[in-house]
Amino acid sequence: MGMRGIFYSAIAMMLIVPIVLYIIFYMDVTETQLEEVSTKIKGDTLSGYAKSIDQDLPRILEISSRRAISTAISYIDANGEALDKADERLIEMMMNGTIYGSSFGLLGSGLVKEWVEAIKAKGRSYGLETNITVLDLDIKPYDSFNVLLSASILINITDGKKMEIYRIYNEDIIISIEGFEDPLYGLETKGLIKRMFVKSAIHDLSSLDLAEENGLYTNSTDGASFLDRLEGNLETSPKYNSMTTKQIGLETIVNLPDLSTYGLPIKSDQSNIDYLYFSSASHIGYPVNNSAKSWLKLDKGHATIYGVQLIE
Length: 312
What we know:
The protein has 10 helices and 9 strands. Helix 1 packs antiparallel against helix 2 (86-96) and helix 1 packs antiparallel against helix 3 (112-125). The protein is elongated. By secondary structure, the chain is an alpha+beta fold. Helix content is 46%, strand content 18%. It has a 3-stranded antiparallel sheet with strand order 3-4-5. The protein has 2 domains: 11-176, no CATH class; 183-306, no CATH class.
């Protein structure tokens, strides 16, 4: 090669080297930017997925608990027998879709276990692995017309590389019992008469007659709580009383004409307050002065509580 060729080759190299260096530098920067973009996308996906769990968890817990309550009442209606441990059976239904280890009714939809599997499948579709552990789940009385569902759930989400979210959710959800059927009333009337929980306050004669006419409920010191009623108890048990400082009992007025219509025996001298009326013990009732219900009788204690006069 002549001097001229060498000269031109040197010039070409001088021109090519910066271009090659620029390309290498650009490729390195582009790769870094791509990694940053990829990391951001994965981070946003992980964050959005975790946020969806934040929003979904309280909802599924409420849906599952309400479905478990409804199924428990249906089970009692169908079998004519109360639950042994209402709080534990409700949790069993929420978690496994079973009662006493067997399936019943339409429990399969909306259960905690099914939700866990659905969440895991959703995570895998994003390239994420999700581990969910139910650390604690229990249900107890909150007050007369509400129960409290408490849940502690561990959730760990990872992309299998660098990103990970680790959370423990502690959820307390208050579930109203209004609108559900009273299982105790059904048990005591052999399933012939159904009565829904609807809240009232009785403070005089007119509100007493209204409560009786519409089968309404009021809070009570001694009457069975909702969970007790699922167990067929007439009065609030020490077990459920010890779970809260609030009053948890319920009571309603037994309609004697309804019982008579269905051929059920009538206790004409018994107080018509449900937990007293259905008791095997004697709880003397007296006619209520000026009540529109000529058959209505109350014990002296409830006459004082409701602010009415008795005819002795």
